[in-house]
Amino acid sequence: MENTNYFELINNTFSTLILDAIQYFPENVNKVHFESSGLLFGINNGLQTECDYIFPVGSVEKRTKSSILTNKKVDNALKASRKLFSTSTFVGTYHSHPYNEYFSDWCCPSNSDVLYALQNKYPYEVIIAITRNNQKSQELNIEYFEGDGLEFTYNKNEPGNSFPSKTNLGYKTTYIMGEFQSYKFEIRAYKFTGDSLIDVDLESSEAELLSLLNNESIKLDGIDEKHTASLRKMEFNLRTTQSNRKSNLDYHIAKLKNIK
Fold first, then answer.
1. Domains parsed from the chain with CATH numbers
2. Averaged pLDDT, groups of 10, the chain, 260 residues long
3. How far apart are CA 203 and CA 126, in angstroms?
């Protein structure tokens, strides 16, 4: 089986996911309390989906073995968006998995997550797993990884916080891992099939831009407002296949490095 689907986080959606997860997992709190959650908007072209806007709506209110009670603001915001948004459509939801420590599969859907998908039938679900890594505050570091593509099916005999049934789909998918301040995180994207959630490739032009700036030793807090346009143009170039893409990126990098 071949993976032909991918989900891309563009504009400021990647950083919004991270910041929203962090606000519900503050550094000065010893215990994990809340999951972040919100709505994803963009353009779904069938196999390719671009997410260009994220609307945080608060934490999940309650999870049980047989149901999930979501924050009522989710439904209210979704209904309002359908009357207001003209350049983007609703493509799914996201939520965080805050944990005390990293472990394998921490970013996979739980049994409750699959049940939530079955109940709501939203096209995509993005999950960000996050923990404090007990290290000193550090600059943003991002890496892409490849793993087995899996299908997750609801198991009615297991509690909500356990793993659902899993099937290996025989292809590889990409996901993002990174570190920021004192946090370690992983982000994955899943598509709802009608019966299950499946892994899809996750890409992010914003993440690529941040990695590029880091590799070039360009600090975001050293860029003034009038040069922000260069960052926007670079992010756009990173998600296009234009023939002059590299020369455009090189031009803006040189421009940013010469900021006095």
1. 6-204 (3.40.140.10), 216-257 (no CATH)
2. 81 94 76 79 88 82 47 66 72 91 93 92 95 79 94 88 92 94 94 96 94 87 82 89 83 82
3. 12
**Tokens 């960000």 appear where?**
128
The pair phi, psi for residue 111, each rounded to 5°, is -60, -40
Phi, psi of 68, rounded to the nearest 5 degrees: -130, 130
Residue 8 pairs with which residues in a beta bridge?
50, 203
User: Minimal CA–CA distance to 129: which of 101, 93, 165?
Assistant: 101
Which residue do the tokens 């505050």 mark?
A: 137
Query: Do the bridges between strand 6-9 and strand 48-56 make them parallel or antiparallel, or are there none, so unpaired?
Result: parallel
Which tokens belong to 60?
A: 């999940």
Tell me the CB-side half-sphere exposure of residue 108, using CA atoms within 13 A: 23
d(CA 166, CA 30): 33
The DSSP 8-state label assigned to residue 30 in this structure reads S
Q: What is the pTM of this model?
A: 0.88
Q: What tokens does 164 get?
A: 């659902």
